[in-house]
Amino acid sequence: MSEHIIRTHNLSKKYKDDFAIEHINITIRKGEIYGFIGQNGAGKSTLLRLVTGLTFPTEGTIERFGSDNPKEITLAQKRMGAIIEHPALFANMSAYENLEVHRLQKGIPGKECIGKTLELVGLANAGKKKTKHFSLGMKQRLGLGIALLSEPEFLILDEPTNGLDPMGIVELRGLLKKLNREKGLTVLISSHILSELHQLATSFGIIHKGKLLEELTGKELDEKCRRHIRIKVDQPSKGAAVLEETLATTDFEVMQDGTIHLYHHVDDVRKVSMALMNSGLVIEHLSQNGDSLESYFSKLVGGAAGE
Ligand code: ATP
């Protein structure tokens, strides 16, 4: 069984009478890059602050590394690194000096971790340059360095791509993938843009107005967004045979409820329906489905808004 890094149970946080997040259940497994997606004000930062232990729930519990004992938060925090809001950088200090201050604050023994971290985040050549002269991308990387200084197992990043240019986003993505692959780092990363995390995250939680609308794996998301014809016939196994024999395709799946998702002939609905009907099948449903990531997201969120 895979190890859980985080599990929340009916987690809620209220500010005065309003829920910032409401009865959220998410699971983050070891080795995952979990993308937490939602529009501005959806509740992403609130959840990340709760997970990090910067604020406390109104209701519900959080299991961190398998323990929901509030007395063990400090222990769990030692295994986590986080950038929530802007990392505190000392503008008149170099990257090395900034990391040294954080090393002392965190009580990490030995200075070797500084050189290693600078190397890791691509700032080994930043030399004596003061942080105030850094580009935004460099500042972000230094922030990441601060979060990684203690070699955490779990990294939490709140909208780290905000304000980064496309190159900066690509760089950050590459770095996180590398850390995940080579060091087994588990990551929780939030964004308001689904497509931005699509190439990075392995699992997704989609939040809207404080409620979790969906939690799904990258593969499930890809399947939902892959264009297909959704077919419901009275005899699914015969339907599958017709697709194979008459339409000469195996690019389809029979889902648990008997619905068939056909990924071939997507723009030829007439040909597909004729083949099925000519074999004596009763078509109960036939439609074209599949979306771009962003339209999938807006449909999901739009649907929830209309509830
Ligand atoms: P953004 O991307 O804009 O930061 P978000 O998804 O991170 O949005 P949150 O910052 O978690 O959303 O906010 C969720 C809701 O909770 C919002 O309505 C916000 O106004 C409210 N909220 C957050 N923090 C506080 C606070 N300290 N006091 C009062 N309300 C708050």
Offer a quick outline of the entry.
This protein is an alpha/beta fold and 307 residues long. It has two domains: 212 residues, Rossmann fold (3-Layer(aba) Sandwich), CATH 3.40.50.300; 65 residues, Alpha-Beta Plaits (2-Layer Sandwich), CATH 3.30.70. 37% of the residues lie in helices and 26% in strands.
Describe the structure.
- This protein has 307 residues and is of the alpha/beta class.
- Helix 3 (95-106) crosses helix 4.
- A hairpin with a 2-residue loop joins strand 1 and strand 2.
- The strands form 3 sheets. Strands 6-7-8-4-9-10 form a 6-stranded mixed sheet, with helices on both faces. Strands 1, 2, 3 and 5 form a 4-stranded antiparallel sheet that branches.
- The chain has helices at residues 44-52, 73-78, 95-106, 112-120, 136-148, 166-183, 194-198, 218-225, 236-245, 269-278, 293-305; strands at residues 4-15, 18-24, 27-29, 33-37, 59-64, 80-83, 154-157, 186-191, 203-208, 211-217, 228-233, 252-254, 260-262, 283-289.
- The protein folds into 2 domains: 4-215, P-loop containing nucleotide triphosphate hydrolases (Rossmann fold, 3-Layer(aba) Sandwich), CATH 3.40.50; 226-290, Alpha-Beta Plaits (2-Layer Sandwich).
- 37% of the residues lie in helices and 26% in strands.
- The mean pLDDT is 91.
- It contains 11 helices and 14 strands.
- The protein is elongated and about 75 Å long.
- Residues 15, 20, 38, 40-46, 192 line the site of adenosine-5'-triphosphate.
Q: What does the secondary structure layout of this molecule look like, with pairings?
A:
Elements: E1 4-15, E2 18-24, E3 27-29, E4 33-37, H1 44-52, E5 59-64, H2 73-78, E6 80-83, H3 95-106, H4 112-120, H5 136-148, E7 154-157, H6 166-183, E8 186-191, H7 194-198, E9 203-208, E10 211-217, H8 218-225, E11 228-233, H9 236-245, E12 252-254, E13 260-262, H10 269-278, E14 283-289, H11 293-305
Parallel strand pairs: 4-8, 4-9, 6-7, 7-8
Antiparallel strand pairs: 1-2, 1-3, 1-5, 9-10, 11-13, 11-14, 12-13
